[in-house]
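pls read this stuff:
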Amino acid sequence: MPGWGGRGGRQRRAFVVGGALLGVATVMLIAAWRSTGFLSDLLLNLGASVVLAAISYVIFDPLFEEARKARVQEHLSFDQQAFVTRLHRAGRRVRILDTWTILLEQRHREETLHAVRSALANGAQVQLLLLDPDCTAAQQRSEELERQRVDVPRQIRTNLRHLAAFQEALDPRLRHRLQVRVYDASPSIQLYQWDGRALISFFPIGKLSFNVPQLEVDMDSPWGGFVHARFEELWEHGEATLGLERYWSITVTLRHDDSDVVEVQVPYVTVEGQHYIDCRAFRLTRPLTVRAPLPPRTPGSTPGVFALAEPADGDRTPPASVARHFDQKYGPGDGKRALRRLVPQPPAGTRTPAPRSTAVVDPHGR
């Protein structure tokens, strides 16, 4: 029962059960005092035994519980099917801390997302914390797994794309219980938690963390406390983590003749220090600029004014490479993307040439 969860809940349970036994013992002893003969002796002995049982339960149950929590079960590898089965039954909390998760690979994805939906419907808070695919640590992890031929950033982007689609399709009553963030830090611990239990492992050099021994621990044990603290440290770190909604799009304000026209959410990627957006949400018709914050974690990412330049073959990053980055993040394009590079504009009052891009008046792209 969720009500008995945690150390305080187990202590309350011990006192409640012990109190109930003492109550039964009291009734027996009173009945023995009022009785005579064999019945009196029987009730007296039974009452005394129940008193001893109650005292023993209150004293020893917490000790047995602590011993149980300290026991660690070792599994040879990560069992996806077993975790998904537990996920279906989770009712309080689900946490995943990883670089990317094989649970969202094609052969497991449908069953995993169905289990996540069940956990959300049960009232569980589901939190996923994956490595930022654009951070240095993701590239370093790819280099560590070079022999495995694993492209870590690509795997993470695929995970995030499916999570974004799943979150968008969720019932609004469940959506707020699902939280997805990416972190920019060296991965050290893998955590898969369901309610009060969890599987944990560490990232080996040159091996996938799913194929190494997994420790199943109680979250109230010292092991559980350690991984809980690590998760909380990353989750609450405002500079190290980024919500899925901020990873997925940025808000740009379309401007014409120094006047704001409309705000639009647009997809974006950063390639070799250059920032690109997909402008197909609006129709490009005449010269304009946009006001936008640079993508998160970009130095000096306060909102600025930018012209929109169409990628050209002479740019540092070829147009085909930009399109490939969009395909990795958002899925294969349908040929309708309108990719533009954000070109910083000098402060107001400085004479500048007209931007090469055209501007937008119809935010619906009609």
Observations:
- Residues 2-70 form one domain.
